[in-house]
Write a structure and sequence with these properties.
Elements lengths: L4 H16 L15 E9 L6 H5 L16 H7 L8 H9 L8 H17 L6 E9 L5 E9 L5 E7 L4 H6 L15 H16 L11 E10 L2 E8 L2 E3 L7 E3 L6 E8 L15 E5 L2 E5 L7 H5 L12 H12 L4 E10 L6 E10 L3 E12 L2 E12 L8 E12 L10 E13 L9 H6 L1 E14 L3 E16 L5 E18 L1 H7 L13 E13 L8 E11 L1 H10 L9 E2 L2 E3 L2 E13 L4 E14 L48 E12 L4 E13 L22 E11 L4 E11 L17 E7 L4
Parallel strand pairs: 1-3, 4-6, 9-11, 9-13, 21-24
Antiparallel strand pairs: 2-3, 5-6, 7-8, 10-11, 12-13, 14-15, 15-16, 16-17, 17-18, 18-19, 19-20, 20-21, 21-22, 22-25, 23-24, 25-26, 26-27, 27-28, 28-29, 29-30, 30-31
Length: 765
């Protein structure tokens, strides 16, 4: 007996509800005369301090909940029986989360923690009260509410320096305070100010400077609820070997005497004697080794920013560590400083660089799913991380893919086969003339040369794709959180020796939008990409953005114009092959709002524009935008949405579903479940459009007065398996609004035909 899709979905929902409400109640394992810590509420009249920040100081928190309500981890724990000797009960308990039992002592400790935190923020007269409310049918749940009354806070009247040390006073003369008069008397902010001063001085040569030397004095007598803060510095104390520590009048600026590099794990107790080591001088660096040099001294030297004769700088030490660690030839990097005997103002910098494995091999088996056809691919990778003994990396990749198309009995004849390979050679520096050494050393950069070839054979066509590229990339920022790349050359040659009559007549007619992509063609492009994020940890809000611009065909057009080459059928050709000419730009922005350590809200917007001109009437198919898929509007499968209100003609693949303009709007709520599982609920909107009107894409052209009505919408749920080093994502999206429909654009919530499943690696944005 067949059942409707609505009945099936309701059955699944009923099963989930049975799971969540199993084991009688959430208080199943709560002992008698005790309470489940059910909920905590914070009420505060202080608007400039968020309740999320305050809740971080709670000594006890309720069980983890989805949307703050559905306690799946606790429900799974309660599914276990009381006999802990049974295997299934132990597994359920380890996967779930035991009930949090309310503790009055912890509540009082939380109240004191909140009060101390508010005082640190300047609210010294704060009042914090804690109340309890018993809830639940069985009176086994306890709610806790904290009421905070800030009262009048203390504010900074002024902030200044009073340093007796002549040397320090000269370097702190132009120091700019982050805290300003009128700010709250925030002890955390003053601690950050002290750390900023120490960092400033350590970057100015004061190697021995630490937080212990800088302190602040506060004067609360200047005015009512006003504080004057003066930062001072204690005298420097120098440890003397075999004697008592001595106090110095002024702090010492320290210079670097020698930079010594050891290609093994350096022992800080090693003698300075080098009789048993081979030594090589490279620039101003001493390189010690035994026999064969496994690491190239010159490549290491270009990544070292601590140089002899310079004053010590903590920033240069961090840059050196980061730059050396980025080399494929290094496994571990440790930097040590040692005072030069008899001279307190000189230190030697000793750098140990543990070499990495030079060569590696990997083989991967990959499963593929293309419009329901299940296939497989075999990938092989070989990497040599020191091919020319200069930390130069050679990577060779091969791929063989097989995809049956149609019935199993016809799989040998009706199939798609892909064979390809790629070789990339990466140098850990900028290979470009006329760049001074000072600039080469200052930026962390690489140069990559690449070649690739891909052969595809299908029942419809045979296609050969050859690529060659030259790309530069570099990073900046204190955390290397800004990345840039320039594709100086991105050359592609596409050659199709055979095309079936069926494919040509069906998809490559005179009005086809993809006809040019299935003719022999050349793409010669260059591009620029930039990205940045300000993520410091997993507990604070952060943003990330990425932008790119790419253009193709301009150089070839200039050459043809100067050479007086005549156009053929309105276009220039190179070796009787038409080349593409277009400009393309993309930008995406994401903002992660961290609610707490279990819940995060993520907002994302992505836009793109591609415009053909000159030698091309249409942007190449592989350079156009598409909607739908795991990283777009997830109610649709990949390349199955748009453009505009264009309605797909059906069939295995509709090649017309691509466009020149893209807009993606996404919202996602991410929450921890249990074990390695994370959950997500999301809402997506977006579409693609064409710039020009094409006969084969009716309704796909962008119109400013209509585009917002053509935004497709979907919603859904997802599961994520976080294995630390990578994340596997399973999302299911349900169509909410389909602009291509003539009627019933708002889709029925129980129509399972309007759903799409997505399996991917990593977060969508």
């Amino acid at each position: 007996m067949s059942r409707s899709p609505r009945f099936s979905i309701m059955l699944v929902v009923a099963m989930l509800m049975a799971l969540l409400t199993s084991s009688c109640s959430l208080t199943k394992f709560v002992p008698n005369k005790q309470f489940l810590f059910n909920r905590v509420e914070v009420k505060s009249d202080v608007d400039n301090i968020s309740k999320t920040q305050i809740k971080q100081y709670l000594r006890q928190k309720p069980n983890t909940g989805i949307f703050g309500r559905i306690r799946l981890s606790l429900a799974i724990y309660n599914m276990s029986g009381r006999d802990s000797s049974k295997w299934i009960n132990r597994k359920l308990r380890s996967a779930g989360e035991p009930p949090v039992i309310f503790d009055a002592d912890d509540m009082e400790m939380s109240r004191q923690n909140i009060k101390g935190y508010m005082k640190n923020k300047g609210y010294h007269n704060v009042e914090v009260e804690a109340d309890t409310i018993v809830k639940g049918r069985k009176r086994k749940k306890m709610n806790v509410r904290f009421d905070i009354k800030g009262n009048q806070p203390y504010k900074l009247n002024d902030i200044s320096l009073d340093i007796e040390d002549d040397t320090l006073r000269a370097y702190m003369y132009n120091y700019q305070f982050s805290a300003k008069p009128g700010d709250l008397f925030d002890l955390d902010a003053l601690q950050s100010e002290r750390a900023k001063m120490v960092t400033y001085l350590r970057n100015s040569g004061f190697y021995y400077m630490s937080n212990d030397y800088i302190y602040a004095e506060a004067d609360t007598t200047v005015d009512d609820h006003s504080v004057s803060v003066v930062f001072k510095c204690r005298p420097m104390v120098m440890n003397v070997a075999g004697g008592q520590p001595k106090e110095l009048k002024n702090h010492i600026r320290v210079k670097i005497r020698n930079v010594n590099v050891y290609p093994w794990e350096y022992n800080t107790d090693l003698s300075y004697s080098t009789n048993y080591k081979d030594t090589l001088s490279c620039g101003s660096m001493n390189y010690y080794y035994h026999g064969k040099r496994r690491l190239c001294p010159s490549s290491l030297y270009m990544k070292i920013h601590v140089l002899p004769g310079q004053y010590y700088s903590a920033k240069n030490v961090e840059r050196t560590n980061s730059s050396l660690s980025s080399l494929g030839t290094t496994k571990y990097v440790n930097i040590y400083f040692r005072r030069v005997p008899g001279c307190d103002s000189l230190v030697d910098c000793n750098i140990s660089v543990t070499p990495n494995r030079v060569q590696s091999y990997s083989v991967e088996v990959e499963g593929t799913n293309t419009d329901g056809d299940i296939g497989a691919a075999l990938n092989g990778t070989y990497t040599h991380r020191n091919i020319f003994r200069g930390a130069d990396q050679l990577s060779i990749k091969t791929r063989i893919g097989y995809l049956p198309m149609g019935d199993i009995k016809d799989a040998l004849n009706d199939r798609s086969l892909e064979i390809g390979g790629e070789a990339a050679l990466t140098f850990p520096k900028v290979l470009f003339p006329f760049i001074p050494e000072k600039l080469r050393r200052r930026i962390r950069a690489s140069t990559e040369f690449s070649l690739s070839y891909n052969y595809q054979t299908t029942p419809w066509y045979d296609r050969n794709i050859a690529n060659a590229g030259i790309e530069y990339w570099w990073t900046t920022g204190s955390l290397d959180n800004e990345r840039y790349s320039i594709k100086l050359l991105d050359l592609s040659y596409v050659y199709l020796p055979t095309i079936s009559d069926y494919f040509r007549q069906t998809y490559l007619n005179a009005n086809s939008i993809i006809r040019y992509s299935y003719e022999d063609h050349i793409i010669m492009a260059l591009g620029f990409t930039f990205s940045r994020n300000n993520k410091h940890n997993n507990y604070s809000n952060f943003f990330s953005y990425r932008g790119s611009v790419e253009t193709a065909g301009n150089l070839l057009s200039g050459i043809c114009s100067l050479a007086g080459v005549k156009k053929d059928d309105g276009a220039w050709r190179i070796l009787d092959i038409r080349y593409s000419q277009y400009v393309k730009g993309e930008f995406s922005y994401s903002y992660n709002q961290v609610v707490n350590d279990k819940n995060t809200l993520v907002y994302h917007v992505g836009v793109g524009l591609a415009y053909p001109y000159g030698n091309a009437d249409v942007v190449p198919f592989e350079k156009r935008f598409y909607a739908g898929g795991a990283n777009s509007v997830r109610g649709w499968s990949i390349r199955s949405l748009g453009p505009g209100i264009y309605k797909s003609t059906g069939g295995r693949t509709d090649f017309n579903q691509s466009g020149d303009i893209k807009l993606d709007l996404n919202f996602e709520y991410r929450f921890k479940l249990f074990w390695i599982l994370e959950g997500a609920a999301f809402v997506d909107a977006g579409n693609v459009w064409t710039i020009n009107s094409y006969q084969t894409q009716q309704g796909g052209q962008f119109e400013f007065s209509e585009f917002y009505k053509q935004l497709a919408c979907s919603y859904g749920l997802g599961l994520r398996f976080d294995f630390s080093f990578f994340l596997v994502r399973l999302d299911v999206g349900k169509q909410l609004y389909d602009p291509s429909q003539d009627s019933r654009k708002w889709r029925h919530p129980f129509n399972i035909n309007d759903m799409a499943w997505h399996l991917a690696i990593g977060y969508p944005f």
